[in-house]
Design a protein that fits this description.
heterodimer; A: alpha+beta; Coagulation Factor XIII, Chain A, domain 1; Immunoglobulin-like; 2 domains; 6-stranded antiparallel β-sheet; 19 strands; elongated; B: mainly alpha; Cytochrome Bc1 Complex, Chain D, domain 2; two-stranded antiparallel ribbon; 2 strands
Chain lengths: 327, 388
């Protein structure tokens, strides 16, 4: 049964939700998807974000910027093709009169683009990430234009995004926060908690947990299997250790114990808990016979839990075996 | 009356929170980790087969003279020691090096770098000697040219004699014979490298503490580090995750990590290793290059080098030895104090480019102070003045 109190709360929630969505809406070629700001240069996509490091540190903006200041625009490619395409980046004052709804067609109608340009980065191929920086001297409405050229066909893909500098960023937020506050206060009053809370302060138990670092070095050659292939390893120089590049011998056998010969072996590895791979790219450089393979270029740079995945490909098929080790 | 009770209770709670607590004894595992961080565990300097004179004392003596000689510069006023000042543990106390112009990054210490497979923040050089050559020709740093450097060796009697004893007659090296010129230029780098290899860290209070721990000398041990410093050390090897990267006796893994440091004012975010790895592969003075002295070209680090998106914005972990005296911090000197650095890691903000590998720590202000207190136990005397 819905009481009057619950109904009042529900109404407040419904009021709040659309406001939150509107506050986060982006425009033009830059769109918000799953909490990520994405620029779509035709079908080519990149994670788009703007920083004003001198005034707001690590805070990310989707495109509207709070103040006229040093602004760093970052595009992290989601589409690899962008890494090899010359990209140019232009910022113009918005003279289209279309504001938020300005599109490429509106920009194309501007006779003298250069006269309204406040920043231009000529085409640049950036293999890792595209960044430009502009220090805005005044607040106002601007339009960003990103063009990427397909090097083979010279086809140009472009994205246009109108944005505001001096954007207070408030929008519906103050109202939204007021609604939230009202909701909370109402809850406190209705549930009687506020009253109880002011009457006596409950004793707070502080539990401090001290987790001792378990950094035991385990160097025993591990056995790993995917059911078809068994992989063990040994380290001719002793045991795996950190901060020294060294070699392993991989011993590859079938489940029945027969050596696996003439296999193609690919090795990858990393620390799943830290989201990073090995610092090197180890490679099998020699088949030593009897199912033994020399793996060179192994290096660990942290203590902790590592996983090394060994992909063994033979005429019979492919097996992936994961070796785990605690360094 | 009731008010007084509340005040006393509040004060008691505050005292309880901040009361001095003696740290517990180290476990066996912890002692193993502590020993791994002590200078006593520093292995011998790894050989550098690419440099035939790496461990030659005459080469080191020539290299030392060149290191401090401002004639190796376009304006006659810049030597290696302009930025790598012995009195500051071979750094300069500036956000970015100041020579003829302003260099691109913060000046790193040279001490202990013989142990690193990579040089520079982005690892764009793979040996001491290849590194030593770059600043000489950088217009923002020494602003010299290889012709000028070789010209100086030829013109200075002592340099020419010392060079001849090591490498044979310099002969008539001109720009018309690039191989001869490059060989002589590389040789100059190799002597500077021989000198730089001799710059090793000296024992700090922390190392003495670990030695006392190993000798089971409780009295000496307790007199060496305060409780706060010991608590800081506990955090260092424990909850603060510092030893993920700052490990081994030099307190660095010499690998590349993105820790989400903000870009420097007026600059784009630094690509770091992503660019450095391309540069080291293309460097004509790298381990595989014609100027390496190793006929077998044992270049495992370069051969198995990794590139990829993980390296965007990643820079090489610096040693923490003498960290107290080597402010400002980070690759562009963005953070001025150790407190700034610790607060940065406590927060672990998202990186501007790439991915911040570190995770927020959630340490208290008191814990950050303890960590800072520990870091200051890593300070050791600067090298003897005789070196300069």
């Amino acid at each position: 049964m819905i009481t009057r109190r619950t109904a009042a709360r529900l109404i407040l929630v419904f009021l709040a939700v659309p406001m939150l969505q509107q506050a986060a809406t982006a425009h033009g070629g830059v769109v918000e998807e799953d909490d990520l700001c994405v620029i779509k240069v035709s079908y080519l996509r990149a994670h788009f974000k703007v920083y004003q490091p001198q005034v707001s540190g690590h805070k990310q903006f989707c495109e509207d910027l709070p103040v006229a200041s040093e602004s760093v625009f970052v595009m992290e490619y989601q589409h690899d093709a962008l890494a090899s395409m010359p990209i140019d980046f232009r910022i113009i004052r918005d003279v289209t009169g279309k504001g938020r709804f300005a599109r490429m067609e509106d920009v194309e109608q501007i006779d003298d683009l250069d006269s309204v340009t406040v920043y231009y980065q000529p085409a640049l191929t950036e293999p890792d990430v595209f960044t430009v920086m502009h220090t805005f001297s005044e607040e106002g409405d601007f339009i960003g234009i990103v063009s990427a050229t397909q090097p083979d066909t010279d086809k140009v893909y472009a994205a246009v995004f109108p944005f505001e500098v001096g954007f207070t960023g408030l929008g519906y937020w103050p109202y939204f926060i007021a609604v939230l506050l009202a909701l909370q206060l109402q809850y406190l009053f209705m549930s009687g908690r506020l009253k109880r809370w002011t009457q006596k302060k409950s004793p707070g138990a502080t539990a401090s947990m001290f987790v001792a670092a378990m950094l035991a070095v385990s160097a025993a050659p591990a056995l790993a299997t995917d059911g078809e292939v068994l992989v063990t390893y040994s380290v001719p120089s002793g045991s795996p250790e950190i901060n020294r590049i060294h070699s392993w011998i991989l011993h590859v056998k079938t489940a029945a114990g027969a050596p696996v010969e003439h296999a193609k072996i690919v090795v990858e590895g990393g620390m799943p808990e830290h989201d990073h791979g090995l610092p090197t790219q180890p490679r099998v450089t020699e088949e030593l016979g009897n199912g033994d393979y020399k793996l060179e270029g192994v290096r660990f740079h942290m203590r902790g839990y590592w996983e090394i995945s060994v992909t063994v490909t033979t005429d019979e098929g492919e097996s992936v075996v994961v070796i785990s080790l605690q360094l | 009356m009731g008010g007084a009770v509340v005040v006393i209770a509040a004060l008691s709670v505050i005292w309880w929170q901040f009361r001095p607590v003696e740290p517990p004894a180290w476990s066996e595992n912890e002692v193993v980790i502590l020993r791994s961080l002590s200078l006593d565990s520093l292995p011998p300097i790894p050989p550098d087969p690419s440099n035939a004179v790496a461990d030659n004392p005459q080469a080191a003596a020539l290299g030392a003279r060149l290191f401090f000689d401002p004639r190796l510069s376009g304006n006659g006023a810049v030597s290696c020691a302009t930025c790598h000042q012995p009195s500051r543990h071979f750094t300069d106390g500036l956000a970015k090096g100041q020579a003829i112009g302003t260099s691109n990054r913060n000046t790193r210490s040279i001490v202990g770098t013989a142990y690193s497979p990579w040089q520079y923040w982005d690892g764009r050089r793979d040996s001491h000697w290849a590194q030593a050559l770059s600043p000489l020709e950088d217009p923002k740093e020494h602003g010299a040219s290889r012709e000028q450097v070789i010209g100086l060796i030829a013109a200075d009697d002592e340099y020419r004699t010392a060079y001849r004893a090591l490498f044979g007659d310099l002969g008539d090296v001109s720009a018309d014979d690039p191989t001869a010129l490059n060989t002589a230029f590389a040789n100059v780098g190799k002597t500077i490298a021989a000198f730089e290899r001799t710059l090793l860290p000296t024992t700090s209070r922390f190392d003495d503490y670990v030695a006392a721990l190993t000798d089971n000398d409780g009295q000496v041990r307790d007199s060496l580090l305060s409780d706060d410093e010991v608590w800081g050390l506990r955090l260092f090897i424990g909850d603060a995750n510092c030893t993920q990267c700052h490990n081994g006796p030099l307190l660095t893994n010499n690998e590349f990590h993105n820790t989400g440091v903000l870009s420097a004012p007026g600059e784009l975010p630094d690509r770091g290793r992503a660019t450095g790895v391309r540069q080291v592969i293309e460097d004509p003075f790298n381990c595989f290059g014609a100027y390496s002295d190793d006929p077998e070209k044992q270049c495992a680090e370069l051969e198995f080098v990794r590139s990829g998106p993980e390296l965007v914005g990643a820079v090489r972990t610096p040693s923490l030895r003498n960290v107290e005296d080597t402010a400002p911090y980070m690759h562009k000197g963005q953070l001025e104090t150790l407190d700034d650095v610790l607060r940065h890691y406590n927060k672990a903000p998202d990186a501007m480019i790439g991915h911040n590998e570190s995770k927020p720590l959630g340490l208290s202000v008191r814990q950050l102070r303890q960590l800072e207190a520990f870091l200051k136990t890593l300070t050791a005397p600067t090298l003897p003045a005789s070196i300069s």
